[in-house]
């Protein structure tokens, strides 16, 4: 395993982050394809044995059951101080007023709820899952600062939003002396590269770690374009992210993978790991081979010609993944 600093911080994280949205009670929340606790445990054990120290979940994943499963598995297989545990806040956790968003009331309630489910006194990285236009940004930032000062989170991170929104958040935090965001969890992969226009440059300039979600484009980069899975057939959100024009990129990944005699996932992840500023892709694994491919990708170095071949078919996309 390789380890790097998260942005400009002193925090060391593994170059592969295990995304825990894949693990949760299938009867809770919106992800009926998730793995239940017994099925999920081997993934945590295998990741830890391979040197993975970075784990990412969210309060909204499987109605909180992802946090519950993640917390119990990590307590069983790892020492708390040896791992970097990340979770997120924003998604709706209950009906009615104040059931979601980034108000002070929601943030202070949800951090406590997440800690209870995770079975820990603190999270290493507390992230806003999306931008909340219905709450003054100053209110959100001050509440997050208070979470850090209360010892409930070590660092703060953000997720998909416009670069101007993130720049404003960084400016306001500096202006008021509040705890700054240190990471950006954004939508970035070979099929969706719109983050290269502004967000990645902003992160590089400001010393922000980049931990992309959906690094394999919901599995699109790992299989023939027309092949489906149980997840893809029920993933309404995923259907909004990609279009038929992206097929050519998937075909180029397959060609290079065949020439190298390695799985396509390793090629797609090797490309992402080679991009400037990328700290650790967040890998979703529902088969142990998914984790194996992620680990193996660390040893794959693409040539300049291969990178050019992969990037050539790209066409601009509308902004996606912010909702």
UniProtKB/TrEMBL annotation:
Pfam families: Aldo_ket_red. It comes from Frankia umida. This is Aldo/keto reductase. Residues 15-312 form the NADP-dependent oxidoreductase domain. InterPro entries: AKR, AKR_Detox_Biosynth, NAD(P)_OxRdtase_dom_sf, NADP_OxRdtase_dom. Signal peptide: none annotated. Keywords: Oxidoreductase. SUPFAM superfamilies: NAD(P)-linked oxidoreductase.
């Amino acid at each position: 395993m390789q380890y790097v600093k998260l942005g400009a911080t002193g925090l060391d994280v593994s170059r592969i982050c295990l995304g825990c949205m894949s693990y949760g009670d299938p009867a809770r929340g919106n992800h009926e394809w998730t793995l239940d606790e017994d099925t999920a445990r081997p993934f945590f054990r295998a990741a830890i044995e391979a040197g993975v120290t970075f784990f990412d979940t969210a309060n909204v994943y499987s109605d909180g059951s992802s946090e519950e499963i993640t917390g119990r598995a990590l307590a069983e297989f790892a020492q708390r101080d040896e791992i970097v545990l990340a979770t997120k806040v924003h998604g709706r956790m209950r009906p009615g007023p104040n059931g979601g968003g980034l108000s002070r009331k929601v943030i202070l309630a949800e951090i406590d709820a997440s800690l209870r489910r995770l079975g820990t006194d603190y999270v290493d990285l507390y992230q806003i899952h999306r931008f909340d236009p219905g709450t003054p940004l100053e209110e959100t930032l001050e509440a997050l600062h208070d979470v850090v000062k209360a010892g409930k989170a070590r660092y703060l991170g953000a997720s998909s939003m416009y670069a101007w929104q993130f720049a404003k958040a960084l400016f306001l935090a500096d202006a008021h002396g509040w705890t700054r965001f240190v990471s950006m969890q954004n939508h970035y992969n070979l099929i969706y590269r719109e983050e290269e226009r502004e967000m990645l440059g902003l992160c590089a300039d400001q010393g922000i770690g980049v931990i992309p979600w959906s690094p394999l484009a919901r599995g699109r980069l790992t299989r023939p374009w027309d092949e489906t899975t149980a997840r893809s057939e029920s993933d309404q959100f995923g259907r909004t992210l990609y279009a038929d024009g992206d097929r050519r990129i998937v075909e180029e990944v397959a060609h290079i993978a065949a020439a190298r005699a390695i799985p396509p996932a390793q090629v797609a992840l090797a490309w992402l790991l080679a991009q400037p500023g990328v700290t650790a892709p967040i890998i979703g694994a529902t088969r142990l081979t998914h984790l194996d491919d992620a680990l193996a990708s660390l040893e794959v170095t693409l040539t300049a010609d291969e990178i050019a071949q992969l990037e050539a078919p790209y066409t601009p996309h509308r902004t996606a993944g912010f909702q």
